[in-house]
Amino acid sequence: MATRFLLAVSVVVLLIESRVASMFSARLIHRFSDEVEAVRAAKSGGASVSWPQRKTMEYYKFLVRSDLERQKVMLGSKYQFLFPSEGSKTMSFGNDYGWLHYTWIDIGTPNVSFLVALDAGSDLLWVPCECVQCAPLSASYYGSLLCSLIYGASIMQDRDLNQYSPSGSSTSKNLSCSHRLCESSPHCGSPKQPCPYTINYYSENTSSTGLLIEDILHLSSGSDDGSKFSVQAPVIIGCGMRQTGGYLDGVAPDGLMGLGFGEISVPSFLAKAGFVRNSFSLCFNDDDSGRIFFGDQGLANQQSTLFLPLDGKYETYIVGVEACCIGSSCIKQTSFRALVDSGASFTFLPDESYRNIVDEFDRQVNATRFSFDGYPWEYCYKSSVVFVNSSKELSKNPSVMLKFVHNSSFVVHNPVFLVYGYQGVVGFCLAIQPTDGDIGILGRNRRKNFHAENFMTGYRMVFDRENLKLGWSHSNCEDLTDGEKMHFSPPPKKGPSNPLPANEQQRNPRGQTITPAVAGRAPSNPSAAPTQLILSQFCLVKFLPLMLLLLLHLIIPSTS
Predict the structure, then answer these.
(1) What is the DSSP letter of 278?
(2) What's the CA gap between 394 and 453, in Å, rounded?
């Protein structure tokens, strides 16, 4: 019995000793510690390793990027791309609509359609709602629709724009003043009060005021295998009760979708919910059509440059231009920072860079300097002969190239606005203006009325917020499966249009130039002539031959 007891005790002791021997300890090392830096340097063959200093802005940026990458690996995104349920197509409808690009979106339950302007320079999605002071919503109010119809925009003038009613949507809910995204909470009477908002765009005293509402944005998904799904994404919407300035004159009459960095923007909501990657693309074709895709990070071989923080924060899409080249000549002292803004009418450059660039353009261009009444641009030129075919005139002008770090370059092939007379092209202006500030603006606009090819036309612009960079590649913004034009009224409900990305100025009817998203950068009135007169003159010039042929056909009897 004693022998068995001793044997059992021995076994227990051996088990305990074995368990103790199997225990170990380890020292935790931070990912940005000196030890890890030494290991990485050794792996790179002794080459210097970019390493953030602790407690600096760069250090915290590294931590955020690393955490986002971990989240992406663990969770991934549900869809490769998302686009509005009405389709991915965008369109600029011309002068009456401020030369912005627009797309149809559906909001609420049941869904209501809105024709919203797209603006990468602001954050909030707002629509006219319980209007106290809003733009006219009758399609017949906008006089240039006939010209747009002739151009092939397939506009239906009998379709009025809509007004949002939170009480009419079963999925709507007031955002309370206690919500963390309510910036007006210090001015609220109580935490339960609906959160008010006011956005002052500063350009021509343009603003939108109302209440913030939570509701559903209807989207469609797409992937390379052609599969499609309907997606209902919760977002915050501005119930725009009172608009001022340009928003009363036809610019974004049915609302505006901000695409900025802010947490309240649609891209931010979609990425945070895990629907898509934190990126989106805007494509601008030379016929004023385009595409928008949420989650699109562009091509692997696209060119790119990093976004720059402003006062240590990433709140706007700012890039750093290293140099500018006119033709084959690259100019010194032309580096500057610029806001990339799809909602800007013009391209503005800081004064010193502007002077150096326009002087070189003026030296290279083969034309006589001329001043056209009512045009805001300083460097305009008179054509030696009148051209009916604008491409002949455009091909003679030197290109403008923006150079970024790591040898990335962005080429603007036709940086001019053509000036039309009754017989054809009579001149052109370099479509760049100076600004007093130290940050320029790279605008998107292409003006049909003046046949202007400006900075983003012909490119697929990728706003990769996840990797904090702007990407671009040449694109015609079309897909082989979708050749339809965008309609002024929403397309028939026959399923979402899903042309996946192939490989890949804004004036109101009263003649005032508006740049909704940029404070204090509205250019002066570009024309002393009434806008509708300019529009009518252009339509007459453009289609005078067609009208004459039709008249001759009616007057001269057929000989057959």
Answers:
(1) S
(2) 9
Can you tell me the distance from the alpha carbon of 116 to that of 358, in angstroms, rounded to the nearest whole number?
35
Phi, psi (degrees; rounded to nearest 5) at 400? -115, 130
- Tens-place pLDDT, residues 335-378: 999 998 876 667 889 999 999 999 999 999 988 899 888 788 89
Is 351 annotated as catalytic? no
Using the CB atoms, write b or e for 93-117: b if 16+ within 10 Å.
bbbbbbbbbbbbbbbbeebbbbbbb
Amino acid type, 139? A
- In one-letter notation, the amino acid at residue 427 is G
502-532 pLDDT per residue, tens: 443 333 333 333 344 433 333 333 222 233 3
Q: Are 112 and 85 in contact (CB under 8 A)?
A: no
- Catalytic one of 119, 123, 254, 296: 119
Residue range 69-115, pLDDT digits in tens: 555 544 578 898 899 999 999 988 765 566 688 999 999 999 999 99
How many angstroms separate the Cα of 241 from the Cα of each of 210, 238, 248? 5, 9, 12
How far is Cα 350 from Cα 345, in angstroms, rounded to an integer?
Answer: 16
How many C-beta atoms lie closer than 10 Å to residue 373's C-beta? 7
What is the pLDDT averaged over residues 292-299? Answer: 94
Q: In what order do the strands lie in the sheet with 318-321?
A: 318-321, 336-341, 439-443, 347-350, 432-435
Radius of gyration of the chain (CA): 29
Active-site residue identified among 254, 288, 341, 464? 341
Burial of 450 (0-12, 13-18, 19+ CB in 10 A): buried
479 is catalytic: no
Beta strands in 388-511 (DSSP E): 400-403, 409-412, 416-420, 425-430, 432-435, 439-443, 459-464, 469-474
Q: Give dist(CA 222, CA 298) in Å, integer.
A: 15
Residue given tokens 């709602």 in the structure block: 129
Give the C-alpha separation, 539 to 523, whole Å.
25
